[in-house]
Structures are given as C-alpha cells and as structure tokens.
Amino acid sequence: MNKKLLNTGVQDFILQNINTDIMSVLLKKPLFEDISQQELSQQIESKKKCKKKLPTWYKTPGIYYPKKINIEQTSSEIAAQYKSGIIAGKSLLDLTGGLGVDSYYFSKKIAAVFHCEINKNLQEITAHNFHMLGAKNIQTFAINGLDFIKNSKKNFDWLFLDPSRRNDSNGKVFQLSDCEPNILENLELLYSKSENILLKTSPLLDISIGLKELSGVKEIHVIAINNDVKELLWVMKKGFLGGIKIRTCNFTNSRVQNFDFELTEEKTAQPDFALPLSYLYEPNASVLKAGAFKCIGFKCNLKKLNPNTHLYTSSRLIDFPGRRFKLLKLVAYGKKNVKNLNLTKANITTRNFPESVDGIRKKFKIKEGGSSFLFFFKDMDNTSQVALCDKV
C-alpha cells in the first residue's frame, strides 16, 4: 500500500482522469515522486469500476483502491445491504473478508464485527477504507479466518463466509468442496463457535446439491440484480431440522421483485394447465434459479402452459415477480405462420423448445431488438406454438 497515492494532488489527478484511456496514463513518464504509472493507472481503473457497484466507496474521499480483481470478486453494495437485513445480534465474524463491503454493511446492524483477510496488503487497504468510511466498530486482522477461529476463545452470534471460488490455476470453481475454505470439512468447527452461519456461494451451485451437503439450512436467499443472479445465500442454524424457506429477490432499476415459498410447497403444488390466455408471465431469474416452477403459478393463481414450459398465463393482468406480456397473436409453429407475422426485428425467448434463439433468428431472418416479443414454446398438448406479445 503506497500511501503517497492518498496525497491531495494525486487524488485530484485520479478524479480528473477517471474517464481517461488507461494506456495513455501508463505510457506517460512518472508524474509523481515515488509513484509508478502502473500504481496510478490501477487506482484510476479500480475507482472507475466502483462507480456503479460501490458508489459509497466511489464518492468517499481518501479511499484506497485495490486491484481490479478484488473489486470484481466483492459483493455489490445492493447485495451487501440485503445481506445485512438477514442478521442480528452483538457480534459477527467475517472469515473471508476481502475488500470488506459485506463487513461494512454488517457493522450497521451488529455491535462488533471482526474482519479476517489473509492477504496482508488487502487487509491494510480495507482497514484504511473502514476508517475513511467511519466504520468504527470493525476490527480487521491479516489472518486466515479458520486460523483466527481456531485460536479464538470467543463465540460469535454470526459467522459469515464467502469462500474463494478460484482454484490454484486461477480457474473458476463453484462446488462447495472445491472452494477455499472448504466449508464441508470445517462445519463442525464453525458450529462450535456460532449457532448461526451465513454462507455465500456461487449462483451456479445446484440448490439440491447444497441441501444434501450442508446441515442446518434454514433459509436460502437467491439474489438477482437486473435479472442476473449474483448471489446464493444459505442461512444455517446449528441443529435446525425444520422446514426450509426460499426467498427470491430481483433488484431492477424501477422496483424490487420478491417471491418467497416453502420448499415443501414446491414439492406438493399441483399446477393447473391452460392454453395461452390474454396475458403471459415469465418469472425473473431468481425465481427460476430457486426452482419455483409449480408453486409460483399456484400462489399467483396462474395457469401454466406445460409442465416443462416455465411460462404462465391469465385472463386478467396481475402483479408478478418477472416480466408481463399482453398476448397479441398465437400461431402454431411453422415456417409459413412465422413469416406471416411480418417481423424483421423482435425479442425472442424459447421455453421448452427444440430450436435455439440463434437458430430461429437465422431461419426466419429476424434481427434482435424492437418492441415486439416472440415466445417459442410447447403448450399443454406438447404442440409447438409461437406467441406474439407486447410487454406490459
């Protein structure tokens, strides 16, 4: 950590050149004493990366930015703030602290937060940033979180873990046993220090596999931002054997879409099926990741188009955690019928359909975009259909 980067003149230069081409900065002769152009470029690049993802860091004077990869791997402020709403108590230990975005938001709900980061340089950067952000109730340590907990005589109200999902060759992994630390090998140790664990895993992890491998799962939270699943959160309680709650949340630019259900509800739900009615509904990505294929139709009083077609329909428009469409025209799938729609541009979605979106575009010469929406799907009779819709 080169503290000379925090000098006023350097900070002014970083802010003034936030949109400057990085290569032009790198190729210049050193502009400041004891500061390389590589260090200067890193600060500019990393600060710019924070503008949307970490706006509080971006707007706070005196923030020291780590390497770009550390920012890419950290939670967004939206997701971190959501996580802070899950926990409550007096103490929390973040075993895999990183840049500390989650710890910062936990500190707004918890009296004492302990932040562990094995990378000494990143830990120093994070400690400095906590100071600049005014987070006075966070203690940060340059240590492996598991070593910290083994040597600590203290118990905590909560433990939080976000295991690294990169292997020795820097490739991405997502299975629990491939992440570091391996929570499956250390569950007994973790539960000896806290009855409550909040675990963040890759959104690629299969929920059914996680349920088989983890013990004490009480809730699963599926978090999406603009219909892109970002985080899978597991709320675990020592010895818990009750029903599991699934909570889905999709943050859009205009609203927050929530849908909650019990795991048993999905297993026992008996959907009603129908041919497309006046309106079609497409669940958001968090609902689909959660596997709420049957109970969402049941709980929203909608008909499903086919057991394997995750589209829903109704005669009257309702509020829905996903996209809503007005059905304009329904035709059986066929070359002549699709061409008769006279569309050269449309947004295309396939559900339970044998052809890909790219294949359909090439076949019918339909470009991407425009205001029309086409759904290619199998209906309740397993007939291939095409629905022309407007978004509501």
From TrEMBL:
Biological process according to GO: methylation
Signal peptide: none
InterPro entries membership: PG_1098_Fer, SAM-dependent_MTases_sf, Thump-like
Domain PG-1098 ferredoxin-like span(s) in chain numbering: 279-321
Record Pfam families: PG_1098_Fer, Thump_like
Gene3D superfamilies xref list: Methyltransferase PG1098, N-terminal domain (1.10.10.1110), Vaccinia Virus protein VP39 (3.40.50.150)
Keywords assigned: Methyltransferase, Transferase
Presence of keyword Transmembrane helix: no
Keyword 4Fe-4S in record: no
Domain (THUMP-like): residue spans on this chain: 322-391
One Gene Ontology molecular-function label: methyltransferase activity
Name of this chain's protein: Class I SAM-dependent methyltransferase
